[in-house]
Write a structure and sequence with these properties.
The chain contains six helices and twelve strands. It is α+β, with helices and mostly antiparallel strands. Strands 1, 4, 5, 6, 7, 8, 9, 10, 11 and 12 form a ten-stranded mixed sheet that branches. The chain has a two-stranded antiparallel sheet with strand order 2-3.
């Protein structure tokens, strides 16, 4: 049977959400996927059956980088063992590290695919807009100059719709497909934090972080909001702003 669940995690202590390989060999770095598969394999197959291997394999809705958090990452896995959802989820959460938890475990159709069946993804980036630091700022980026929300929203509006987002992808990305559809892009102020929500059918590697970097370049250098359109139309990564820190970025929801 195929099961799916949502995964919440704090990405600070992991080298991204998914196990990575180099030259066919697995890179031995802590990942959310590695911890999930170890815990699932232990519960379903028993500790003796695992023997440092992970017989239960997981499929994620998408990859998040080191430092990126999740409230709604979706994962599926297959097993021939019958699972009582509430009991299994309780035990799974008990053996997972404290910065990873699962919710909403359920049986899904065998045609369901966590990545390929996804229709849209919602990311949120938060940063602090305050001159002085606070002991509780944590790892969030702090911007000292005043952010003008109306101008920032005008810049975000240029991203809505279907576009080639080549200017906002990491230079190391091998995926040749660069067209994405951005359904919504909004910013708001919550206390001394700026919250940016972006929803789209797909995102390129580092795309959201580069969009934020471009927004800050526009604000910091008092460029016109239309500069965002110029960057988008250029299809050239060198025209966009810096890729900002992953801290503050959260995968909020994946919709199917």
């Amino acid at each position: 049977m195929r099961y799916a669940f949502k995964v919440q995690y704090i990405g600070k202590n992991y080298a991204g959400s998914q196990i990575q390989f180099k030259n066919g060999e697995q890179i031995e770095s802590p990942t959310v996927q590695g911890e999930l598969e170890k815990a699932l394999s232990t519960l379903i197959c028993g500790r003796d059956a695992v023997n440092n291997k992970r017989p239960i394999k997981t499929v994620f809705s998408g990859r998040t980088d080191r430092g990126v958090n999740s409230l709604g990452q979706v994962v599926h896995f297959d097993t021939d063992k019958t699972i009582v959802a509430s009991e299994f989820m309780y035990h799974l959460n008990e053996i997972l590290p404290k910065d990873i938890s699962v919710t909403d475990l359920k049986v899904v159709d065998e045609r369901f695919h966590a990545q390929k069946s996804a229709k849209r993804r919602h990311y949120r980036f938060e940063f602090i807009n305050r001159k002085c630091k606070n002991a509780f700022d944590g790892d969030l980026m702090r911007i000292k100059y005043e952010i003008r929300l109306q101008r920032m929203q005008e810049s975000l509006d240029y991203l809505k719709g279907e576009h080639d987002f080549s200017s906002f992808k990491s230079s190391g990305t091998l995926n040749p497909s660069t067209v994405c559809f951005i359904e919504n892009a909004e910013c708001r102020r919550v206390g001394d934090r700026i919250v940016i929500d972006i929803t789209g059918n797909r995102f390129l590697y580092n795309m959201v972080r580069t969009i934020v970097g471009t927004l800050l370049e526009i604000e910091g250098h008092n460029l016109p909001s239309s500069h965002m359109k110029d960057v988008l139309d250029a299809k050239d990564r060198r025209k966009a702003g810096a890729t900002v820190s992953p801290y503050g970025l959260t995968l909020i929801e994946v919709q199917y």
